[in-house]
Amino acid sequence: MHGALLVAGTTSDAGKSVLVAGLCRWLHRQGVDVAPFKAQNMSNNSVVTTDGGEIGRAQALQAAACGLAPSVAFNPVLLKPGSDRTSQVVVHGRVDGSVTALSYRERKAALLEVVTQTLTDLRARHDVVICEGAGSPAEINLRATDIANMGLARAADLPTLVVGDIDRGGVLAHLFGTLAVLEPEDQALIAGFVVNKFRGDPALLEPGLAQLERLTGRPTLGTIPFAPELWIDAEDSLGHDGAVGRPAAPLGADWLRVAVVRLPRVSNGTDVDALAAEPGVSVRYVTAPGELTGADLVVLPGSKTTVSDLAWLRETGLADAVLAHARAGRTTLGICGGYQMLGRAVDDPHGVEAAPGRHAGLGLLDVDVVFDPDKHLGNPAGTALGETVEGYEIHHGREVRGHGSAPLVTLADGTPEGVDAGAVLGTHWHGLLENDGFRRRLLERVATTTGRAFRVSTTTSFAAARAAQLDLLADLVESHLDTAALEHLIEHGAPSGLRTVPPAGAP
């Protein structure tokens, strides 16, 4: 099999990322040499690749579905929002300035060449490439400079599926309307639809899908059911109720309760997914001080804007709640930006994040953080809590440790990283909780501190749990989509003569 396919969506969070991951896993299980591709991603959830760059975490997950290590080729353009109006631009894994929504338009012509050439190179190295769109192709105000949806599809002649989330309501209108607002040349590449997150009897939906095909001339290639056991994170989205994952019942008498502060510019919030994979560990995102009451572990996750998110902590009263939690001897963990907030001060002399100056931290750890102009990227390894660990780093902050600070992590060369102050811990490393041994030692410490009758599982493997989720996605693709039609699209492209909707000349 040789070819490519683009998965577009009626909206953001329609299911593009997980569908691409499922398609990639399905093909990989058949022995196909497949790779993922997302021309442009907007996310603060990123990873460091083996080639030393930075890409969206969703593309790293899709790479894992293909049995591949993450590469900058899978996501050549990454936008990391720093505010509602500005984003840092990462091109081929490296920071390449900042843009506003308007100024970014001026860069897109050059970036279209970047993404199309990257895709061409990727297709030369792999038999199949499954591409993911961004947002929705129905954003016609952005079509003239689009590089991720139909702009990419037209440039690379990609057959395109449109996926819609029926859980949101109005999915038939969303699918029809997405097609109808596109110009005829774009419509010619839309080959079919997929319905995501369906609950109930599919027979009730069939008449609507049949009418949709009569109206558009395009089939729905399948309806993916809502799968409550699916918790794998796609992008930056969080559960509507704040819960993370679906943990099994505890092995002991008690649950451990983890409160993760949902910062306004949270980054790599998926760091806590590994905690939610443990039996008896309840993980919830919180945004109010009262929600920390009774928590056994409080986590301050990463942040794209440490200084402003620290100010938000104080404005909301969460800073006082975190201080009270820590001073009561209960465990607090800071990761990357959250670690920086726990220190004495954040010094930003170059104005990397905010106006140049020194900003007081929460003072729970004996460490200062100084922002360097260049971003620190890496895939380090070492030991922590007596266990061998690996992780990845994406940050501007450089720690300046106090003389009495015990390290949380010790690198192979003896370099200290992070701080372990007993009840309060901090690290710049993302992915640390994915190390099974470290996670168990941390949870044992939390249970001992709180006196919970909690027993840590000795068999939970986060890597295995993630692999099982990818296999579940592939199972859903294989069981509920027309895989023969998918294979034909990948190899032969969109069929010719597809109807334009509305008919040409209609008002």
How does this structure look, described?
Residues 257-437 form the CobB/CobQ-like glutamine amidotransferase domain. It comes from Actinomycetospora endophytica. Pfam families: CbiA, GATase_3. Helix 3 (101-125) packs parallel to helix 4 (150-156) and helix 5 runs parallel beside helix 7 (202-216). The two termini are 42 Å apart. The chain contains 14 helices and 29 strands. It has two domains: 3-219 and 482-492, Rossmann fold, CATH 3.40.50; 243-461, Class I glutamine amidotransferase (GATase) domain (Rossmann fold), CATH 3.40.50. With 507 residues, the protein is an alpha/beta fold. A seven-stranded mixed beta sheet has the order 13-16-14-17-19-29-28, sandwiched between helices. It has a six-stranded parallel beta sheet with strand order 2-9-1-10-11-12, with helices on both faces. A four-stranded mixed beta sheet has the order 3-6-7-8, with helices on one face. The relative contact order is 0.13.
